[in-house]
């Protein structure tokens, strides 16, 4: 288990007595999602284990690997994986309906460069991903916990960013996106405070233009039409 300078595990939640990066939600698994879990799970899913994952063996090839935390229903993830077949993509998600949905999309698209781990992302990072193994990390529209008293539950915090950076190769990147301005401000502060990362944006705001590989979702497009903002942040590992 990774530790910070104080000797405490990274991203430790004392109230839960364990590391966690999510809040459990319930959801109904549709028939199509259930079939995908049963039929496609053996092909695309990797079991969680407290041992370093052999990426080349998991994908059957050696290629730059990008890890995504919380892929929702997988629509964006599937589009990105189809757009960049030269890269490997590991999606980490705890909610079964979303896993089933992504499996269905991966099967329909024959996305051999996709693997899924249904587990807490922090434990996956700590126990399965070797330091310097990743080419990138995606965190798109994480729960904003918009009430001030709940802000401490937000995913993007210093200890997690430190852990993410430790798993990136030099030159790798962290790409976050949010449609909550307050969270965007926090992300910019937290990512900017990590000494091993450099903001790639040249805009005075510090926010990056949406990279071409990140498609907009129906929800995002609706918000943009209503004048709501979306903020992308892209930071590069420098040391």
TrEMBL record:
First-level EC class: transferase
Chain residues that bind substrate: 147, 179, 217-220
Pfam family, one: Methyltransf_4
Binding site for S-adenosyl-L-methionine: 68, 93, 120, 143
Catalytic activity from the UniProt record: guanosine(46) in tRNA + S-adenosyl-L-methionine = N(7)-methylguanosine(46) in tRNA + S-adenosyl-L-homocysteine
Pathway where it operates: tRNA modification; N(7)-methylguanine-tRNA biosynthesis
Protein's UniProt keywords contain Magnesium: no
Entry's family note: Belongs to the class I-like SAM-binding methyltransferase superfamily. TrmB family.
HAMAP family: tRNA_methyltr_TrmB
Protein name: tRNA (guanine-N(7)-)-methyltransferase
């Amino acid at each position: 288990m990774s530790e910070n300078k104080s000797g405490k595990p990274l991203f430790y939640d004392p109230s839960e007595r364990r590391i966690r990066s999510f809040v459990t939600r319930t959801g109904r698994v549709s028939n199509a999602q259930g079939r995908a879990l049963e039929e496609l799970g053996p092909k695309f899913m990797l079991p969680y284990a407290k041992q370093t994952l052999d990426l080349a063996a998991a994908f059957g090839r050696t290629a730059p690997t990008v890890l995504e935390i919380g892929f929702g229903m997988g629509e964006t993830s599937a589009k990105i994986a189809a757009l960049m077949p030269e890269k490997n993509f590991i999606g980490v998600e705890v909610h079964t309906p979303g896993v089933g949905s992504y499996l269905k999309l991966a099967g329909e698209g024959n996305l051999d460069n996709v693997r899924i781990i249904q587990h807490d992302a922090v434990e996956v990072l700590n126990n399965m991903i070797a330091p310097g193994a990743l080419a990138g990390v995606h965190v798109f529209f994480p729960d904003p916990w918009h009430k001030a008293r709940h802000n401490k539950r937000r995913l993007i915090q210093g200890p997690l960013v430190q852990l993410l950076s430790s798993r990136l190769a030099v030159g790798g990147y962290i790409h976050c996106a949010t449609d909550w301005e307050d969270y965007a401000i926090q992300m910019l502060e937290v990512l900017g405070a990590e000494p091993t990362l450099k903001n790639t944006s040249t805009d005075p705001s510090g926010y990056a233009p949406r990279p071409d590989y990140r498609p907009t979702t129906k929800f995002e497009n609706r918000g943009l039409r209503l004048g709501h903002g979306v903020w992308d942040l892209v930071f590069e590992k420098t040391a």
